[in-house]
Amino acid sequence: MKDAQPRTIYLKDYQAPDYWIDTTHLTFDLHEDYALVTSVLQMRLNGEKEFESGTLPALTLHGEELDLVSLHRDGEELEGDQYQLAKGTLIVSVKQPTFELQVVTRIRPQENTSLEGLYKSNGMFCTQCEAEGFRKITYYLDRPDVMSVFTTKVIASQARYPVLLANGNAIDKGELENDRHYVTWEDPFKKPSYLFALVAGDLECIEDRFTTMSGRDVTLKIFTESHNIHKCDHAMVSLKKSMRWDEEVYGREYDLDIFMIVAVDHFNMGAMENKGLNIFNSSCVLASPETATDATYQRIEAIVAHEYFHNWSGNRVTCRDWFQLSLKEGFTVFRDAEFSADMNSRGVKRIQDASLLRTAQFAEDAGPMAHPIRPESFIEISNFYTLTVYEKGCEVVRMIHTILGAGQFRKGTDLYFDRHDGEAATCEDFVKAMEDASGVDLTQFRHWYSQAGTPVMTVTDKYDAESGDYHLTIAQSCPATPGQEQKKPFHIPVGIALLDEQGQLLPLNAAGDKEQVLSIKQSEETFVVKGCKSKPLPSLLRNFSAPVRVRYDYSKDDLVFLMKHDTDSFNRWDACQRLGVAAIEQLVEQPQQAVDPQLVDAFGAVIADAAMDKAVKAEMLCLPSEASLAEQADVIQPLAIVAARKKVKQAIAVAHKDALQALYNELNHERVYKPEAADIAERTLKNVCLGYLSAVNEAECVQLAAKQYDDASNMTDRRAALGCVIDAHYRDEALVERLLTDFYDRYKGNSNVMDDWFAVQSSSAELGTVEKVKALMQHDSFDSTSPNKLRSLIGGFTRNMTHFHTAGGTGYEFLADRVIELDKQNPQVASRIMTPLTRWKKFEPVTSGLMKNALERIKAVHNLSTDVYEVVNKSL
Ligand code: PHE
Ligand code: ZN
């Protein structure tokens, strides 16, 4: 409810600020029903800007939901005629080019349900300031190009809040009257307000140390509520690995004497990179073998790394404005992806990332909110923490890495960090540093920053038996997106290889290279490979070398051949996916047909392939998800997709039951849980087998899953088995009930596991009806103020293709009600959770109309937040 009339902000309107804030002294006096914030700012006119001679521009500070208690300029209390409060701003008249401003505000963290600014989670105080949350704490120049040195004094009750934290190093502490105490923190590094953080609570911590490459000793602490303190070790191990990796791979050393992580339950996102004091969603920190799955362990490792890496890519070098968000996010996602690849299976990491991109980011790029990784305009910046900015942004950085090569890329990052340390930079600065360091011209490459939409690469080929010449023609185009009708050709790095009839890679050039990265720059280009004895089969876009769609007319035989022989694990997996998509799409059109026998055989060959890497094998055996099938469909028919996919899965399961059972048995052995790549691969593959077996309509198959559930010694196996029983072909409702109750009884004290208990039900094709979801909202363990709970229960339901899209549109109406209700409480979550509705245009007409009705009902609500306002208006 920021503005009565939401305003669009444009990149082209960017202007440097009129004033800088050299130092910021904050004092927080925290009480049970309010907090008093005193801010003392040393202000300085921006001398690089030109002003009308003899006048000093008024200072316009941002501020929202604040009570102004007092205002002093150079010690003088200002009266009403010397300042002005207008929507979201405080305008102060200025007399001197440098001056001190003291602002005292009163805020109510206890009533802050938006989880932006200062708020309370489970009795502790915490902050979230990115992107524009600091203005809910005090009046300030809340923009990332204003960087200041912060000192923060936190005062609170000693008994209730024994731990008081802020950014930097603790420089003073003491006791006060009335059982109150204080700690003062000083952060020597200049930073923008969005990186400010404060925590006050009754917390415990685990402590460790790290010696940096130059020999400095750093204290590492992870804080959580005492009952979770034994679940922080994995995060600590991950942190130390990240610190070492960033030194080894990027030459980046940590810069403060202490690094802290705090886990909180109520958090809008995954985690936040505040300088020296990262605040995490507890779901991205806490793990024990009994309560966290392998996927959770890996997610924690990746997010701890991501936030740590931001210390350089985001904090030391920050963003000039929020249009440059991908400068820090795309680059940091690339850094964490490479870290995870080094720590785990590189091939599988690539498959998972490409799969997420193609499923969810491609859908975003094809929807009403499509935007370039550097958007040109927005109404609400919170809506632009997107898969495009993060994941496609990462792919853009990866393409630079591919084009330059690892060595030149590292020279580029060194130059970038060197040049811009302590500054607020732009995407252009990043690309320029890459160009300057490598000498490679990236002029055309820059279109990736300014053009939205997913390019389509159409590949055709021709073989001349007489000359032995093979011609590969690559054409590119990019569909129109909102505000961008015409696109210029992209510079696309395309990894290719050619396979001969034996499945061997052919030399592509005189040098004998068997793999090559082509630089495609024209709308159509042809490459000729000489000396081919027969028509080769192309392996295209190897390792998913660019975020594009590839169209090439592979026959089913071609795909089966690639699955067997391609040396690129991404492309082997992709061939398998293509085969799966074709088989399922065929059944969507003609549901009575038999399942493609070639697909069933091909999957049998994968199951039987004992030599294949287990992690890759597990990925290959996963049929394309419902979401990915929906993304690839021209017109989405949700129930037909669900039915077709299920039929294919059952056919594979029935045909290969014995082999699946044998593989399951081979992998199903007891051992001490370790979240390590080799073990994870075995568990994943085993549980994929169990998933197929439970698609066989036999009681003994469900019993097998039930046994795994009961015997499980870790959450990975128990959770997988639960999912299998719930969705099993052979229905045993009493068993489903028993396991759900058992799961609840075992884990009801663990909020993060309860999230999953809600999600497993709401997302289930068997259980997740609207009625069920409504009933679960009334459950004691549900908490409507928790974004995690909302994402699990409501978000889980919106991913439930069966029930969310059930005829009559009751699912859409339910979601619209939740969005309207939530918008008053937490606009960021409201706006995110409605994403599935915004894709209405892709559905078959009846469904589509019902989705649109639900959106229109949201649009009609008065006083929508800027968050929901922007999404609903752009979608209709
Ligand atoms: N900057 C955080 C990250 O990517 C994400 C975030 C954005 C968290 C906004 C909270 C609010 O690491
Ligand atoms: Zn980030």
UniProtKB/TrEMBL annotation:
CDD domains: M1_APN. Residues 453-553 form the Peptidase M1 alanyl aminopeptidase Ig-like fold domain. It is an enzyme of class 3 (hydrolase). Residues 557-876 form the Peptidase M1 alanyl aminopeptidase C-terminal domain. It catalyses: Release of an N-terminal amino acid, Xaa-|-Yaa- from a peptide, amide or arylamide. Xaa is preferably Ala, but may be most amino acids including Pro (slow action). When a terminal hydrophobic residue is followed by a prolyl residue, the two may be released as an intact Xaa-Pro dipeptide. Its EC number is 3.4.11.2. One of its GO terms (molecular function) is alanyl aminopeptidase activity. Keywords: Aminopeptidase, Hydrolase, Metal-binding, Metalloprotease, Protease, Zinc. Belongs to the peptidase M1 family. Aminopeptidase N is involved in the degradation of intracellular peptides generated by protein breakdown during normal growth as well as in response to nutrient starvation. This is Aminopeptidase N. It comes from Endozoicomonas montiporae. The gene is pepN.
